[in-house]
Specification:
This protein has 406 residues and is an alpha/beta fold. The chain contains 14 helices and 19 strands. The chain has two domains: 173 residues, Rossmann fold, CATH 3.40.50; 217 residues, CoaB-like (Rossmann fold, 3-Layer(aba) Sandwich). The strands form five sheets. Strands 12-11-8-13-16-17-18-19 form an eight-stranded mixed beta sheet, with helices on both faces. Strands 2-1-3-4-5 form a five-stranded parallel beta sheet, with helices on both faces. The longest helix has 15 residues. One of its GO terms (biological process) is pantothenate catabolic process.
């Protein structure tokens, strides 16, 4: 069980931190809430205490025998500040210690994750951007805010990312120390990466389709991880029903033909393409214009044709130097057969890296966990298992290692 400090600054998004707290506790973590005095204007002390099961303080002169302004930060495994207002970012960047939360930030030996939320003008102001840059230089992990509806009728960047998004990032930071180093390094900053996710639908008639069991969860984790590491990320989402992480440019597609069109259009501007989506290999030759009706006791015969091989086309027709990553979901009897199938597919597709997983018995699809082997033309380069948010960073580690100047 990890010990998490949830700092809450005084902004309207403070109420959303209640859901962040719930998700962290349901994941088995011990959470101590440290609100600023202004945060209690939005959500009261009683609420935080009831949801966390722990006493709640805001000042350094409360429970002084326990020296909370030092002990809380020293004993934490992770500090998450959500929301982090413009004021809190400024005080943290200047090293202020005028309430319990800023004292905790100064004494924490663990990773610190700041999740900003404020109006667009405040987020884009040069002072705020300078404070964020200062914090990042010191090793603080700062998520970019989401874009969307703000207080009143305003919209734009500055919205607090959704609770599931924050909780997933927190989980990845706790589960793998290497993830913290990669996010701190922002080794994908200045790069544009395109990630596909989900499974395509090939229409049989207006109400039926040929699909597959891909949920898009691994692709979403890859997109989120790249954004945390500083990349500009375009997500090509094929029938993804899961919530989309914040900070991504999203292109939604349905069929393999749609997926191919979107990926080919985005390729010219991409430094890396990751084909985590599961496209159909076949599509009906003549989809019915109207709903297909039952005709007595007879069956149904449908003629299929092959779809565009998106990964192979991206690999063979790349307009410039870029890293292309493919996925191979195979049913194999053992690791040796999986590797054999992967090598053959890598040779056919022509991509730089291929991520292998064994989906025998329905494994992987829809699950939070995954087990992968990454190969290149020389053979295996890495293996990993665990939560898909952590697996995503292992894949990006392999991408960066494959081309240091990505």
């Amino acid at each position: 069980m990890s010990r998490i400090v949830l700092g809450v600054a005084g902004g309207i998004a403070a109420y959303k931190a209640c859901e962040v707290l719930r998700r962290l506790r349901e994941s088995g973590h011990e959470v101590t809430v440290v609100p600023t005095p202004n945060a209690l204007t939005f959500v009261g002390e009683t609420t935080w205490a009831a949801l966390s099961g722990k006493p709640v303080h805001t000042g350094v002169f409360q429970a002084v025998t326990e020296v909370p302004h030092v002990r809380i930060g020293q004993t934490a495994d992770l500090v998450v500040v959500a929301p982090a207002t413009a004021d809190l970012l400024a005080r943290a960047a200047s090293g202020r210690a005028d309430d319990l939360l800023t004292n905790v930030l100064l004494t924490a030996h663990c990773p610190v994750l700041m999740v900003p939320a404020m109006h667009t003008e405040m987020w884009e102001h040069a002072a705020t951007q300078a404070n964020v840059a200062t914090l990042r230089e010191r090793g603080v992990l700062v998520m970019d805010p989401a874009s969307g509806r703000l207080t009143g009728t305003d919209t734009g960047p500055g919205r607090l990312p959704e609770a599931f998004d924050i909780a997933q990032v927190a989980a990845s930071l706790l589960d793998a120390p290497s993830t913290v180093d990669a996010v701190r390094a922002r080794d994908l900053a200045g790069r544009h990466v395109v990630v596909s996710a989900g499974g395509t639908h090939e229409a049989l008639d207006p109400v039926r389709f040929l699909g597959n069991a891909s949920s898009g969860r691994q692709g979403l984790a890859l997109a989120q991880a790249a954004a945390l590491r500083g990349a500009r990320v375009t997500l090509v989402a094929a029938n993804v029903a899961l919530p989309i992480p914040s900070g991504l440019e999203v292109v939604r597609v349905t069929s393999t033909a749609d997926l191919a069109e979107a990926m080919f259009a985005l390729q010219a501007d991409a430094d890396a393409l990751v084909m985590a989506a599961a496209p159909a290999d076949f599509t009906p030759v003549d989809p019915a214009v109207g709903k297909i009706k039952k005709d007595g006791d007879g069956g149904l015969t449908v003629a299929f044709k092959q779809t565009t091989d998106v990964l192979a086309t991206l690999s063979h027709d790349r307009p410039r130097d870029q890293v292309i990553v493919g996925f191979a979901a195979e049913t194999a009897a053992d690791d040796a057969e999986l590797l054999q199938l992967g090598r053959a597919k890598l040779a056919r597709k022509g991509c730089d890296l291929l991520v292998l997983n064994n989906v025998s018995g329905g494994a992987v699809f829809g699950s939070d966990a995954n087990a992968i082997t990454i190969i290149d033309a020389t053979g295996p380069v890495a293996s990993a298992s665990g939560d898909k948010t952590v697996i995503a960073h292992h894949i990006w580690d392999a991408v960066v290692a494959s081309k240091g100047d990505l």
